[in-house]
Amino acid sequence: MKSLILFLIIIQIPMIIFEFNTESEVRNWQIVDDAVMGGRSNGRFYLHKEGYGVFEGTISLENNGGFSSVRYRFDTKNIEKYNKIVLRLKGDGKLYQFRLKSDRYDSFSYIHPIQTSGLPESIAIPLSGMYPSFRGRKLELPNYKGDRLEEIAFLIGNKKEEQFRLEIMCIKLE
């Protein structure tokens, strides 16, 4: 019994933020496009019949636009015991940002670029490497300290008109 308890203390059990399956409820995943600033980009998010989330759409540079994002908000999670976030996804070979907020009401996000390969992959992001940014500008604040979490998001905004597609299977902390 003591060895089992010691084993559980030593082995960190991952915290699942969201794991998609054919019955996942995705109504709390929200699209935020550049339309909030007059742009014309158009993203959408849905659950694929095979059980993964799909974030896809078109980026337009019209009216000073150029980005689309999908965010997921949830009750506060204490994540002090974790040091990285692992994304299991399949991209389209394009560059995205993974974003998070420790407080959903913060005006800024902590971000980390992710270059997708076009193949299914797992991408591990050290929490301490996520830097604060507001509207594309890095802020003079400390990097993410990794104590609490209330929102995650994916954003694409590569300063060009393009189609995009990101398939998301799982997001977890380790």
Task: Give a quick set of tags describing it.
mainly beta; single chain; six-stranded antiparallel sheet; globular
Descriptive report:
By secondary structure, this protein is mostly beta strands. Helices cover 5% and strands 51% of the residues. Strands 2-5-12-7-8-10-11 form a seven-stranded antiparallel sheet, with no helix packed on it. It is globular, with a radius of gyration of 17 Å. The model has no long low-confidence stretch (mean pLDDT 94).
Shape: globular
Strand order of the largest sheet: 2-5-12-7-8-10-11
- Tell me the Rg in angstroms: 17 Å
Number of strands: 13
Portion of residues within helices? under 10%
Described by strand count, sense and barrel closure, the largest sheet is: 7 strands, antiparallel
Strand content: over 45%
Reading the helices and strands in chain order gives: HEEEEEEEEEEEEE
Low-confidence stretches: none
Give the number of helices: 1
Distance between the termini: 25 Å
Helix-strand category: mainly beta
Mean pLDDT figure: 94
The gist of it:
By secondary structure, the protein is mainly β. 5% of the residues lie in helices and 51% in strands. It has one helix and 13 strands; from the N terminus they run H-E-E-E-E-E-E-E-E-E-E-E-E-E.
Describe the SSE topology.
Elements: H1 2-10, E1 15-19, E2 29-33, E3 42-47, E4 53-59, E5 68-78, E6 84-90, E7 95-101, E8 109-115, E9 120-126, E10 131-134, E11 137-138, E12 148-156, E13 162-173
Antiparallel strand pairs: 1-13, 2-5, 3-4, 4-13, 5-12, 6-9, 6-13, 7-8, 7-12, 8-10, 10-11
